[in-house]
# Entry
Amino acid sequence: MEHEIWITALFNRFLSGPANAVLGVFGLKAADPAHPWADSLAIEIVVVALTMILFAYLRTRLSVDSPGKLQHCFELFYEFIRAQAEEVVGHGSKRFLAFFGTIFLFVLFMNLIGIIPTLASPTMFLEVPTGLAVATFIYYNSVGLRAHGVGGYVKTFFGPLILLAPLMLPIEIISHMARPLSLTIRLFANMFAGEQITNTFLSLTYLFIPTLTMALHVFVSLLQAYIFALLAMIYVGGAVAHDH
# Structure
C-alpha cells in the first residue's frame, strides 16, 4: 500500500465500510478493503465540503447595501467569468455560467489546497483531471446536441462543404477525442510538477525560499484553473455556434 496522508487515514479508519459498500453496488472491490480510500478522493471530498461551507456562510452574509469583503471577492470572480464567457461563447453565454463558474472554482480550490502543509492538491493525481476533462467533454457535446439536434450537430463535423466531409469527419473526430487528453495532461502535469517543487523546497528549509515557491504555486493554481475554464468556454462556444 502506498503512503497515505492523515486525512485519507481517517477516511480509511472510520469510513472504509461505506466505501466498500458503494464499490460493491457497482460490482467492484478495493485492492485492500481496509484501505479503500485514495488520497485524491479523500482530499477532493474535503474540498467539496469546505466549498459548501464557504458558500453557505457567504449566502448568510450577502447584502445589497453593505456587501462585505468576501462578497466583493466573489462578485469579482463572477464578473470575470461572465465577461470571459460573453467574449468567448457570445450571445446566450449566461445559461452556461453555472458550469463555467463551478469548474473554475472547483479546479482552483483543489489546486490551492496543496499549499496547506501535510495536504496535496487532488489535481496532481491523474484520475482527478481525467474526471474533470471527461465531464467537460460530456457537457459541451450535450449542449451542442441540444442546440442543433442530433442531425445538425453531426453535420458540424462535416465542414463547410459536403465535398470535404470525407476529409473533415476523421479530423474533427480525432480533434474532439484529443480534447479530454489535452485537458487532463495540461492540468495534471503542471500541478504535479508544482507540488513536487514545493515539497522539495519545504524539505530543505522553511524560511524565505518556500514562501516564493508557495507564491508560485498560487499563481500556477490560478492560471491552470483559468486555462481549464477558458478551454471549456471555447469548446462550448464551438458546440453551440450556428455559423459553421
Q: What stands out?
A: Helices lie at 6-14, 16-25, 39-61, 69-88, 97-112, 127-155, 165-204, 208-240. Residues 165-204 form the longest helix (40 residues).
